[in-house]
Queue: 3 jobs
Job 1
Amino acid sequence: MTDTTTHDLPAVDHQDERGAAQRGWTGDAVIDLRSQFVATTRELLETDERTALVLAEISSDRFADLIDARPDRVINVGIREQLLLSTAAGLALSGLRPIAHTFGAFLIERAWEQVKLDLDHQKVGAVLVGSYGSYDWPAGGRTHQSPGDVALLDTLRGWTVHVPGHPAEVDAQLRAAVAGDDRVYLRIGGEPNAEPHDPTGWTRLRDGRRGTVVAVGPMLRATELAVRDLDVTLLYAPTIRPFDAGALRANLGRPRVVLVEPYLAGTSAAQVAEALLDLDHRQLGLGVGDPDRHRYGTPADHDRLHGLDPAGLRRRIESFVGE
């Protein structure tokens, strides 16, 4: 776990299309989280003959030249998400390291049986990269929203789940995942943080006495604003599975834990309970509430609707820690 000093952040500047405002960097270029995935994947495909990419139309325009140049390792199956996962499993069985990519709602939920059987049941490794998070494109409606993806994966065992909050974390996590042979889910979504942190471990950003707040991935910016003058410890977690029970226990100023996640509220409640099984503790899970509120609007509207904006987080955390 990395220990850093507290840093000030500018006020959150939500835009109507928050996905278009996901700004970070790769090298000297300023790009969004999804473009970082594209840039890193393109480099891996050029330099590593073991790397393969399977698409289901989404993002195929960004790999059009490689689809033509490397048809054996870059495959677009069209709008067939179940086939996307089955093809990835087949490539893995042939000795390649497949990256399967589309929107998270299509990758995990629509193709769930293939995730469960073709990959998990057969113990086949692959890197799944889902974009658009929980509600990054509200205009797409419920079909494009996936706040339950991590909770679904929790019904399986042995998965690594990365929830990066910065393009540099996307780059590092993807490279490490492709170098391995296990089953990895890289969840890309939400507004990026101001700066990158350790992409695999949990980082302590500040110390406090009245409780411990864990911000997962892109929830850090709003969480840091919400707790900036509260007497709490703040941890940042860009990798949430496996759950870092050691880091949590090592940073308990008081056995009150708030976990702020960018998907279904309480998704990691069981992990917190297990990590603190021998301690008399309290926990509060903050995240997406009712996943189907029948609303469109903007991502910022949904943040407020679920209490995930700085003001909403502040009210819940302040009340919970007793300040």
Note: DSSP finds twelve helices and 13 strands in the chain.
Job 2
Amino acid sequence: MKCVVICGPSGVGKGTLINMLLKDKGCGRLGFSVSHTTRKPRPAGEVDGVHYNFITHEVMEKLLKKSKFLEHARVHGNIYGTSFEAVEKVICDGKICILDIDVQGVRACRRSKLEAAYVFIAPPSIAELERRLTGRGTESEEQVTKRLRNAIGELQDSHQPGLFDFVIVNDDLQKAFRQVQTSSSSLEPSPSSSSLLS
């Protein structure tokens, strides 16, 4: 079973790069694992079941108690998680599964021995990341400050030996995309019968 695990601070451009991967026919058969989150959809058109599976804290806690998640994390006052079901759905379609998770999730996937290319997307600088977060206008000043504080920790973690296979600086979108393409180019989809639980 093969996956591409993409990680990086909020606002670094992970979503844009993932969308480019999914649309690029040269990347082969790729599929996106839709994560669960307890946060509300952003007003800019996030769709339930497409961008995230939006659920309540109560439902999420129940699913966690039933061990339904490959990884989960409590971030910015919300819970995010990747369910076994979401990943297996992509793999059973004969596709390489793309996961968009945070550093805590990466550690959980490493512990679970998930076979994947682990890619960290970094901003050119914290100042540029702040500009991007402020520019998208979806968070309050307090939320931006919290995300920047978390980003500094994530950037430090990205240099931890053995955690990431690739660290890509997104200072030029097309250049970063080519590097992400390269990081996933050696992966092959697993047989559709593969299971995370086997």
Note: Residues 3-184 form a domain with the Rossmann fold fold (CATH 3.40.50.300).
Job 3
Amino acid sequence: MTTNTASARYSGLGKGGKGAITTRSGVLSDQPYGFGTRFEGQPGTNPEELIAAAHAACFTMATSFALAKAGFADGTLDTQCTVTLDSADGGFAVTKSALTLKASVPGISAEDFERLADEAKAGCPISKLLNCEITLEKSLES
């Protein structure tokens, strides 16, 4: 079992409040977040950006391991993830996580690439965590 931690602090309430996020590793240390960073494009981060980063990283790693297990020894995987936050039930909900994968894997067939990427999407722990539509666009570069 692996565990990780992060913490968030919020001073003030509602739109006027200001928050800070810190992760165990220190990669984020008192990183600002709040209404302005979430909805108004102000500098800082927000929960959906962090979910997108986590999903892109997890899916890319899952795909890498699936390719290695299938016998491929080299390649490059670039994934972008876009998380959508919509109004729902009087509040908000993450409704979609859209993954876009661009890959270069010497010697792989298009069929094997498609299958392994789809399996990685389904098996990625963050995909399993999310309760939303998950899409995957994939392209294989030669």
Note: The CA atoms of residues 101 and 138 lie 5 Å apart.
